Amino acid sequence: MVRACGLLTAQKEPVPLKSIEVELEVRDHVATVVSTLNYENKEDKPLEAVFVFPLPGDAAVCHFNAKIGQTQIVAEVKEKQKAREEYDDALSSGQQAFLLEESLQSPDIFSLSVGSLPPGESASIRLEYVTELAVQADDGLRFCLPAVFNPRYQPQGSEGAGVQVTSVPASLVPYSLSFSARVSSPRPISKVESNCSLDPLQYLNTDQTQATVKLAAGHKFDRDVELLIYYKDAHQPTAVVEAGQVSAEPGSLMADSVVMVSLYPEFPQSVTSSVASCGEFVLLMDRSGSMISNCSSHTVASLYFQCSLKDTLLLLLKSLPMGCYFNIYSFGSRYEHIFPKSVEYSQQTMEEALKTVVQMEANLGGTEMLQPLKHIYSQPCIPNQPRQLFVFTDGEVWDTKEVIDLVKKNSDSHRCFSFGIGEGASSALINGMAKEGGGHAQFITGTDRMQPKVMQSLRFALQLAVVDISVTWDLPKEVSVTVLSPPITALFPGQRSLIYAQLSGQVGAAEGCVTVKYSLAGHPSENQLHFSLRPAEDTGLTVHKLGARTLIHSLEEGEHRGWQDTKVKEKVVQLSVQSGISSSLTAFIAVFNNNGEAIQGPLLHKNILKHGESSFCFIFGFSASVSEQQTRDPLLQLVSLQEATGKWLLDPALPTALGKTNEEVEKSKPANKEIWATILALIWLHGLKMDSKNEWDLLAMKAASWLRAQNGSNPYENNIMCAISFVLII
Predict the structure, then answer these.
(1) E-strand spans in 548-669?
(2) For the chain, what is the largest distance between any 2 Cα atoms, rounded to a whole number of angstroms?
(3) CB burial readout 170-191, b (16+ within 10 A) else e
(4) How far apart are CA 207 and CA 144, in angstroms?
(5) What Pfam families does the annotation carry (predicted)?
(6) Distance between CA atoms of 257 and 240, rounded to whole angstroms?
(7) In this structure, what are the phi and psi dihedrals at residue 602, rounded to the nearest 5 degrees?
(8) CB of 647 closer than 8 Å to CB of 621
(9) Could you tell me where in the chain the CATH 2.60.40.1230 domains are found?
(10) Which residues are 498's β-sheet partners?
(11) Whole-angstrom Cα distance, residue 525 to residue 466?
């Protein structure tokens, strides 16, 4: 791990960051975020300060300014090396300077060098970025303001500048947070929820398409601030056309109009309820030391997280279909696997895997994901068994881009489903792996139940894939279209796609049409969206900026990795400078000469970080063993007794799991005890656990399939009559 400078000095001197103000503007599926960071230099010498902070992996930084006293400075986007040279020259001449650049290793890490602040002087940094909001399982749109920035693990001897970050308890953080959000959409806003206390939602119009909400007073910023936004008619497609900048270079992206199309189709129940009975499921588990916190005492929250991942693996393994193949890898500084290669799913292999899972601990050192991924991809795919990769990690890797590149390189042979565990999990890593691997990303924070999110991803993996996707445009002859987004390679229930396109020519008040065709389960489908080409008013160029960021990402992550193609590099820099959007090759730079007067005294250097650890302890995933005993969830007790085939045995432990005595379960003297036990288990699930049906429905479907496969005209007719009498006493 990179050794970091602390937030506080050894003498416990206060850091100069005093407050953070965040304003969120949500327009349908897109958000604009404005953060204001207020500083004060309490040293008796000039201070060079560096602030390291996270952003969503797909965010586009679009504005950066600084205020020293009463003087306002607006930054410009320039090629990164040129910006660094200007910054160094300014500091050496005693000028104030500000530099914002993106990490080459992780695009969600931005380091903000606020330059030399005179003694006693205050500085205010205003940063604006735009980002897409992720769709959740319940159709909500998720926005997350990270309160934690976990350090990135960097192996000893590896090359690359690891970002130096440290963590302190939130109780010692001397700065405050204010947060407000404004939401608008063509659709009515149903509700806004959060894991933090909010003031009541305030609607701004009668049709409830605009609303505001604020964080309640007294928030300690000891957790991520998460908003979930819900719209009515969430699956209706939308299109937003945005006018270009009058002052932009004619023919450029920023001068032309840009359209953003949102596609979030709803599939028939017959499609979403059917699952495949094959596949190779490879689970990759993070067992690095960062998966447990360094606190000395165990809390209720830490005990919850200690067991959560193991319980999730139990549920996941029990829900796999007969006929599939599977394997489990775990990694830290090294990696392990349960089987030399993927094995066929059976009672024996399932039990062997579960025995190993129970013994797992977070004891494998650092977070090195690249090598186990290379080993997984080196294994030949099994014919007629589509590979599905499930990755569980806290996201503390240093080589994010290399990992994502590797997933993309192998995207033709698998789908990748990623899970970010804990506060501050890298959105660039989690979202990037899922995006490039054609899968789905999930984040588990706070007291979130991991099981429903993981089971939703398993359901996605088992569902039939949407294939042969094509997008065509029908526009007036005087308008041409240039698609900025990469082709849609994967789409399944619960996923949304945003398509950005540049419209050139005479864009007036005419109508355009976009048609999406695809095939599902051998049946072709077609969706059409007719939209007005009249640009929307007062959009702040949000769509342009996201379109530019999408194109920049495509160029950065394309075939010319390592920037061997000079033209691609020049194109990225040109597009970044024209749009004001940051990239891995550019940086924001601002210099203020303080009326020509040099700042007196030698510079002090101090790193200023967002705090990295909550004031209470969390243990994520596989922790060291603890002596405390916990009462196991009755649902998990019942799940643990299910066989790989889907059936239950009339085991002595079954009555206990059902909350019954042996006499109550066996008094009906069933003809077939296995059928009887399976029916009782299903009745108990449907009778008492419907609130968590999304966790057990796959294993229940497997049980029902086993029942239907039994020989005889109706071998369990008598058992059903017995079950009816049994359910009356549940």
Answers:
(1) 586-592, 604-609
(2) 96
(3) beebebebebebbbbbebbbee
(4) 27
(5) VIT (PF08487), VWA_3 (PF13768)
(6) 10
(7) -70, 150
(8) no
(9) 244-271+466-535
(10) 262
(11) 10
Domain 244-271+466-535 has CATH 3.90.1150.10: no
pLDDT in tens, 457-496: 998 888 776 777 889 999 999 999 999 998 876 666 667 8
Secondary-structure class of domain 8-153+162-234+580-592 per CATH: mainly beta
Token pair of 687, please?
């009778």
- Using one digit for the tens of pLDDT, what is the confidence trace for 274-322? 677 788 999 999 988 766 543 333 343 334 445 678 889 999 999 999 9
pTM for this one? 0.68
690 burial type by CB count under 10 A (0-12 exposed, 13-18 middle, 19+ buried): exposed
* DSSP 3-state of 555: helix
**What secondary structure does DSSP assign to 116-173, as a single string?**
EE-TT-EEEEEEEEEEEPEE-TTS-EEEEE-S--PPPB--TT--S-PPP----BGGG-
pLDDT band at 7 (very low <50, low <70, confident <90, very high): very low
The first and second tokens of residue 474, run together, are 């029908």
Domain made up of 276-462: CATH architecture: 3-Layer(aba) Sandwich (3.40)
Q: From CA 426, how far away is CA 117, in angstroms rounded?
A: 31
The reported pLDDT for the residue numbered 730 is: 44
Contact status, residue 675 vs residue 722, Cβ threshold 8 Å: no
First-to-last CA distance in the chain? 54
300-319 and 347-359 are packed helices; what angle lies between their axes, rounded to 10 degrees?
Answer: 160
What is the DSSP code string of 401-438?
A: HHHHHHHHHTGGGEEEEEEEESTT--HHHHHHHHHHTT
Query: How far is Cα 712 from Cα 329, in angstroms, rounded to an integer?
Result: 42
Helix, coil or strand: residue 467: strand
**Tokens at residue 69, please?**
């006293």
